Amino acid sequence: MNPFAMVLADLRALRWTAAAIVALIALAVAVGVAIGAQERALRQSSAAAADDFALLIGAPGSQTQLLMSTVYLQLDAIPLMDGSVLQSLARDERVAAFAPIAFGDVTRGYPIIGTTAAFATRWGRVAPSEGRLFAGEGEALIGADVDYRLGESITPSHGVAGQTHKPGEADEDEAGHRHAGHDYTIVGRLPPLGSPWDRAILVPIESVWEVHGLGNGHAAGTETIGPPFDGAPVPGVPAIVVKPRSVAGAYALRSQYRQGGTMAFFPAEVLVGIYRSLGDARGVLVFASTLNATLVLASILLLLIAVTGLRRRRYAVLRAMGAPRLYVLLVIWLGIALLMALGCIAGLLLGGAAAGVLSGLIEAQTGLRLTISLDKPEFLQIGLLFVVGTVLSLLPAIASFANPIASGLRD
């Protein structure tokens, strides 16, 4: 006898109850899938954004604040370190390249970052997708997501500590702090980097110094941009990105610049601490999700026991007509297993979609480009839920298996 015909007949008769069970399982699965996929995408994207920042040097203070301001452009008031550090790095044979990073100005909510042309190309790894690099003061290179056109002129505004700006939108605060007479002309656009720097406007560090009346960092009468910075004195900067020649050199530089009025660290060091905190939060969420799934599973099991009880007369009739007990058990178990499978598949799709929506919100807030993927942990979680659910579903099936025919017919 084919049990699937009876299974389908049962599901048609209980279609609304079956739909509710599938929906409950899908929601329980989706929460866990969304948490796992989202946390992994955020971790991978934030780590990739820091790849080009091998070693950061700044004034003594919070490493996390310097990392967030420099790598993720969550700008804040950062103390300046002495500009002579740039001259020391230029003479250091352990340094393959270095670039000052200066921020504080904005235009239409986009941060204006002063740096070198070499770092704008990520040490030669990327090239402008439109136009060219800045080659002199007063020129600007924009990120892929900046809503300006090549050839447009922009006027920077002095940012205010604690003030948040929405990219692409000017506000009254900007209008009140413009650096009149210090316009930039946009000469190029970078390709997407998948980081908050896609929303940044890059200009020569000399322009930032000049806008704030600090000179240009070079000897008097010199109009070039980029290192060496041979001015007397060289203006201070909030951060310097260093590309060491070797691993040993990187550790030696970090040790050297952890004293003498500076601090130095590898971004990965700070990210590990952040990830640890993120992992603790994820653990709490996963535990809550697992508890939620367990409660949902228990509720579904009770519901299935009740539904099977309501169908006892039907199963008793089947057995009275000669159907073996194992056949009835198989019909009940297959029906429940099918509902579990449909719920798990729907939950997988729903969780992936929820993670995608959440990623869009995070991207809009941070500029990090998150790529959602479902991996081994999500499939293991769903597989475990399916196995546990189908094993537990044997309970109502066995109860019906053991029920005498006469008792079932009397109900």
What does this structure look like?
With 411 residues, the protein is α+β, with helices and mostly antiparallel strands. 52% of the residues lie in helices and 13% in strands. It is built from 14 helices and eleven strands. It has helices at 3-13, 15-49, 63-70, 84-91, 117-120, 172-175, 205-211, 247-256, 267-310, 312-320, 325-366, 376-392, 394-402, 405-410, and strands at 55-58, 95-107, 110-115, 130-131, 139-142, 153-154, 157-158, 184-189, 201-204, 239-244, 263-265. Strands 1, 2, 3, 4, 5, 6, 7, 8, 9, 10 and 11 form an eleven-stranded mixed β-sheet that branches. Strand 2 (95-107) and strand 3 form a beta hairpin. Helix 2 packs parallel to helix 11 (325-366). The protein is elongated and about 105 Å long. The protein starts with a helix and ends with a helix. The relative contact order is 0.19. The model has no long low-confidence stretch (mean pLDDT 84).
As a whole number of angstroms, the C-alpha radius of gyration is 31 Å
Distance between the termini: 25 Å
Number of helices: 14
Rounded mean pLDDT is 84
Q: Spans with pLDDT under 50 lasting ≥5 residues? A: none
- Write down the overall geometry: elongated
| Main β-sheet description | 11 strands, mixed
Alpha-beta classification: alpha+beta
